[in-house]
Amino acid sequence: MTIDPEKKIAGLLVPLFALRGRHDLGVGDTEALSEAVEWAAGNGFGAVQILPVNETGGDHSPYNVLSAFAIDPSTITTHPSWLPDLTPPEYRRITEKVDLRTLRAGPVDYTGVKALKRELLESAWKRFRSGDGRGGRAKRFSHFLEQHSSWLPDYTLYRVLLERNGLVEDPSSWPSGQRNAAEARSWLAGLPSTERSAVEESRLFFAYVQWIAFSQWAAVTDLAEVLGIALIGDVPVGVAAGGADIFACPGEFDPERSCGAPPEKVFKSDPFTEQWGQNWGFPLYRWDVMARNNFLWWRRRLRLLRSVFHLLRVDHALGFFRIYSFPWPPRRNSEFTGLSEEAAREKTGGKLPGFVEHDDSTPENRDANERHGEVLLQILDSELGPHRLIAEDLGEVAPYVRPVMARMGLPGFKIPMWERHPDGSMQPGGDYARISVATYATHDHAPLKTQWREWQEGVTRRGAEGEGCRRILSELLTFAGRPDLDPMTPFDGEVHGALLGGLLGCNSWIVIPMITDLFGTDQRFNVPGAVGSANWTARIEHPVGEWTARHAPLLAAWRGMVQSSGRS
Fold first, then answer.
1. Do 501 and 429 meet the contact criterion of CB atoms below 8 Å apart?
2. How many alpha carbons fall within 13 Å on the CB side of residue 248?
3. What is the pLDDT of residue 268?
4. What is the C-alpha separation between 60 and 442, in angstroms, rounded?
5. Are 134 and 128 spatial neighbours (Cβ–Cβ below 8 Å)?
6. Which of 19, 395, 438, 546 is spaced 20 to 30 A from 518 at the CA atom?
7. Is 333 helix (H, G, I), strand (E, B) or coil?
8. DSSP-derived secondary structure letter, 532
């Protein structure tokens, strides 16, 4: 697919898990995404952005991945029309044991969904393994094993051991001899032949699941290309501390510190986050070690993702310059909530959260951080090709980050409320750099409708807070080309349409409203720092097949605005 920043386009951000498709089993899948791609092509979009699809662990966060290479099995469409090794009678037999209506109705029940898909995939594997449905597929599976031999063997060994050890995502607590790939290969070689054969059979099953996943994702990519839709994937900044990557390459990660983000005013979800920041729990990269093999792990990761996606958003690109980190894992956060820095030092032996390798306190540190980030982003950019890397640069942005990105021609993000002139006034969208991506909210933010309501409620407060809320409402209406509207005008209707039009009118190469901002709903997908089942489980109320009928007037207006903005 030709990627040309001179051709402005409109994109749509939609978390895959939130989609409801024709045959989904309680979570969005490849078929649902295919439906969304077809729908997008008919409604003026040129891109569809999703969140990471790598395999996740027990918290189901798409940014806490068990593997930087494996695709999460929950994304697989397990209907026989997409899974040729599964017969319709067998599909019915297995799914009839489950209350599908309940599973599909509410938020994602990951435990139930994954158990059901696991049984369906195991049934398909048995039929494939027996030869009943193989034909030429056996050769294609063998080719897949060969093609992915750089990561798949260690991943499948990890997955087998994860299950043997009760799904405890902490190899350091596993029996001696199983805690990393090098040890585990020796352990496997020493098993009795019958037990070793059983382990190898289980490894082949996990490889089969990945073959099915990559095959289905290739079909989605092909469809998107035919329809002229660029698929935008997402590269998480870190990997799970107890995941397959650390198991395979322990020397390339530093488990002593846990990466995260410093405190920010925009995130006040809990006292710990407000005081100390976000503690994501991912180990730091040992960049010096990775440099010795020319960052091979990163290169392989990006090549694999590039085979599925046309563009990639690299999460928290600021972390490639310097990363904020904690000297304790997330499970200890509660111990530090409310503590003074002195009391925290007593608990950690003198260490506090801070930036690594360097903070920006001296010119020398700033220069070192700038060089570090530019080198790493150049490596990523060289693997993906021109204009295929989008750097997520939101948060506490060091002064050298955006100049580096500008030199490299990497688009960053423009959120109108945050783009300000030195005097504090909101920057017009027409002044945005062409090489940029504009949006009102990401998956980490409240939808625009929610923010609008909160600002209007804030207007009633006395003093600076009330004045600030009224000012941002007025600024956004001016940004949208409707300064004549009263800031207290309700969001639904005229304001919503104007704000969408204002976004489309930006000079940015791509504008990407979230699905909730497009439809004007207040559904939220993630609250940073919050703990519980509400994150990453919300599903869009209606199936993709009903979107056009349910939002017909809005979509007609949207298509007209896309046309007039030159993004069709």
1. no
2. 21
3. 63
4. 18
5. yes
6. 395
7. helix
8. S
C-alpha span between 247 and 190 (Å, rounded): 19
Side chain identity, residue 550: R
What does the alpha-carbon distance between residue 292 and residue 280 come to, in Å, rounded to a whole number? 27
What stretches in the chain show pLDDT beneath 50? none
- Global pTM value: 0.96
Residue 171 has a pLDDT of 96
Residues 6+ away with beta carbon under 8 Å from 206: 155, 156, 159, 160
pLDDT tens digits, one per residue of 513-544:
999 999 999 999 998 867 667 899 999 999 99
∠ CA 228-233-235, nearest 5°, is 160
3-state secondary structure 83-119: CCCCCHHHHHHHHCCCCHHHHHHCCCCHHHHHHHHHH
Number of H helices, E strands in the chain: 22, 12
Tokens for 298? 């990163």
Residue labelled with tokens 């909730």: 516
The per-residue pLDDT for 548 is 97
Distance CA 396, CA 355 (A): 12
Residue 303 has a pLDDT of: 97
Which pLDDT score, from 0 to 100, does residue 284 have? 97
Question: What's the N-to-C CA distance of the chain in angstroms?
Answer: 17
DSSP 491: I
Nearest-CA neighbor of 547 among 534, 558, 563? 558
C-beta separation of 326 from 258 below 8 A: yes
Cα–Cα dist 508/8, whole Å? 7
Task: Give residue 527's pLDDT.
Answer: 87
**Residues 364, 230: Cα–Cα separation, whole Å:** 40
Predicted pLDDT of residue 531? 66
Cα 190 to chain centroid, rounded:
39
pLDDT at residue number 131: 85
CATH numbers and ranges of domains, the chain: 18-248 (3.20.20.80), 251-393 (no CATH), 411-534 (no CATH)
User: According to the model, what pLDDT value does residue 270 have?
Assistant: 79
DSSP 401-466: HHHHHHHHT--EEE-GGG-B-TTSPBPPGGGS-SSEEE-S--TTS--HHHHHHHHHHHHTS-HHHH
